């Protein structure tokens, strides 16, 4: 942790606190996500492990946020990500006028390419929503927050939890409590955004 100097808090979600920081040696700006263990006896939280595993297993893709490093800290972990200027929920909230059709198409395209890439690598994200889509200073969109992600198999025998995704964004099969579902749950969200941005 002493390799970084903290520059401020960026976000706080369900699973951790995110700080803007500078890598002292290289001067690079990064985002540090601290994932704490609630109680020592809980062991390593599944959510943190999932995120690390999902992100480490996939090669670099321009539409998925890059995990640069992971290290233990206190009773938890710190995940080091490339720094992104904003997220889509802030972009939607802060823009003076509705996004243009060209912007919506651009974001949609990058989102779908990122989702396709995850699915090609057998990863269901399961929590896609504007706050988990990061936007760089150059307007690039990258999928982030793999805290609920999991690897899927195409054998169709696996049972999954339906308690995933933020309620507003849950696909119908999850709302109905399905335990067998597939990567289609990520696509429901995609179309749901159109309501937000269009
Ligand atoms: P949580 O699991 O707590 O929801 P997220 O990974 O979604 O954690 O991060 C919470 C918020 O922090 C995001 O909605 C975003 O605003 C901000 N954030 C996360 N990662 C980055 C990053 N790499 N660069 C800039 N901001 C980030
Ligand atoms: Mg999040």
Automatic annotation (TrEMBL):
Pfam families: Pkinase
EC number annotated for this UniProt entry: 2.7.11.22
Residue ranges constituting the Protein kinase domain according to the UniProt record: 4-198
One Gene Ontology term, aspect cellular component: nucleus
Keyword Cytoplasm: yes
GO terms, biological process: cell division
UniProt-recorded Gene Ontology molecular function terms: ATP binding; cyclin-dependent protein serine/threonine kinase activity
Catalysed transformations (reactions): L-threonyl-[protein] + ATP = O-phospho-L-threonyl-[protein] + ADP + H(+); L-seryl-[protein] + ATP = O-phospho-L-seryl-[protein] + ADP + H(+)
The keyword Ion transport is annotated on this UniProt entry: no
Subcellular location field: Cell projection, Cilium; Cytoplasm; Nucleus
Binding-site list for ATP: 33
Name this protein carries in UniProt: Cyclin-dependent kinase 20
Source organism of this protein record: Denticeps clupeoides
């Amino acid at each position: 942790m002493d390799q970084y100097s903290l520059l401020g808090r960026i976000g706080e979600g369900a699973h951790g606190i995110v700080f803007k920081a500078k890598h002292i040696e290289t001067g690079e700006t990064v985002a540090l996500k601290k994932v704490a263990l609630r109680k020592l006896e809980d062991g390593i939280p599944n959510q943190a492990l999932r995120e690390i595993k999902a992100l480490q297993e996939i090669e670099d893709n321009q539409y998925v946020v890059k995990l640069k490093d992971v290290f233990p800290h206190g009773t938890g972990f710190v995940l080091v990500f490339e720094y992104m200027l904003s997220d889509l929920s802030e972009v939607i909230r802060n823009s003076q006028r509705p996004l243009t059709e060209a912007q919506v198409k651009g974001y949609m395209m990058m989102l779908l390419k990122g989702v396709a890439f995850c699915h090609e690598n057998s990863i269901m994200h399961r929590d896609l929503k504007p706050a988990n889509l990061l936007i760089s200073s150059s307007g690039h969109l990258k999928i982030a927050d793999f805290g609920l992600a999991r690897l899927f198999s195409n054998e169709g025998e696996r049972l999954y939890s339906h308690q995933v995704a933020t309620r507003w964004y849950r696909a119908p099969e999850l709302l109905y409590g399905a335990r067998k579902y597939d990567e289609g749950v990520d696509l429901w969200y995609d179309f749901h955004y159109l309501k937000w941005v269009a």
